[in-house]
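call fold(seq) -> tokens
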Amino acid sequence: MKLRTTIWIAAGIASLSMGCKGSPASPFNQLQEQPIMVYRLQNNQQPVATTTPGTATTPSLIPGLPGLPIPPEFQPQVQQAQSMICQMLPPGVPGCPTAGSPTTQPVITPATPMFEGYAILGQSQVMDPKMREEIIDIFGYEKSFSSRKSPCMYPEFGMAFGSGQTANLLISYSCNQVQPRNFQWPHGDTGMTDKTVKNLNSIIQRLFGGG
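ret:
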């Protein structure tokens, strides 16, 4: 009898724990079975040089392409984030220095593939259902976010949820926040908690071959 009572209590606690978590917030509750594409982005971009026959070369911006220089007050954290990301990724990936050589940014042309106005350096589709669940667990719950962030947006990564890019968002390590692009953000804050950064690091490493 005592054993049976213990089993019922344990089952009740487990059920209560599952109930406390609840369902992911909209729209993530509708995207649990949808494809997810993760993009590595070039967050520090320069204007693209274009030429027209008979005219001199002049710098111009691709429509929607962020081309303004990073303000001095944000440069240290952008560089720190870039260094951290390069340490997570395999040697020789675009935008990261090789041993004994400086960092060189890939050249952006009008033919460069873009995501939400930022050049794509690499991309990887989430194929593992467990990883998809991890991502939904991050973005679908308010506990993953806080008010701690910088007033900037220099995204190193982007995510597209759904086959038709139903929900796109940008992820900025350097500014410690995410930014929804084509959907209403369901949470009160967009700053990332330390646990969120740690969990995202693990996902990025597995997707792009850094660990």
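Helices lie at 2-21, 75-88, 129-139, 194-208.
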